[in-house]
Amino acid sequence: MKNYSAKNVEQYIENCPKDAQDELRKIRAAILEIAPDATERTDYFEIPGYSYAGYDYNGMFAWFSFKKPNVRLHVRPPVIQEHKKELEGFATTTSIVSFPINKEIPIPLVKKLVKASIKVMKDKSS
Hints:
This protein is an alpha+beta fold. It contains four helices and six strands. α2 packs across α4.
C-alpha cells in the first residue's frame, strides 16, 4: 500500500491519484462545513484529521484517507454501528466507511456521520 502522508491536507490530496483528488476535496469540504472552526491536521495517523482542543484522543473526531479504490471517512466508534442501515452497500469497519471513487459520494451522509462523531467525542468528555 502506498503511503500518501504529507505535511498538510492539500499536499496529502495532491499526493493521491488524480481520479481520487476531487472526491477527497468533497469530503474535506463537507467536514469543514460541519466543523468550520476545527483544527485541520495530518500529524495523527499521518492522514488528514480534524480536532477540537480539550477532548480525548487529542480532540480528533474525523479523518479521511485514500486506499485504492476507495476514499474513506474515519469517525469515532460507535458512529458506524449507529448508522449501519444507512451504510448498507458500503464497506465498513468499526470506524471507517469506504466510498468507491467511481461512484458519487453521498455528501449528506458524510455530514451526518461527522456530526455524530463530534457528538460521540463531546459526550465522552462530559
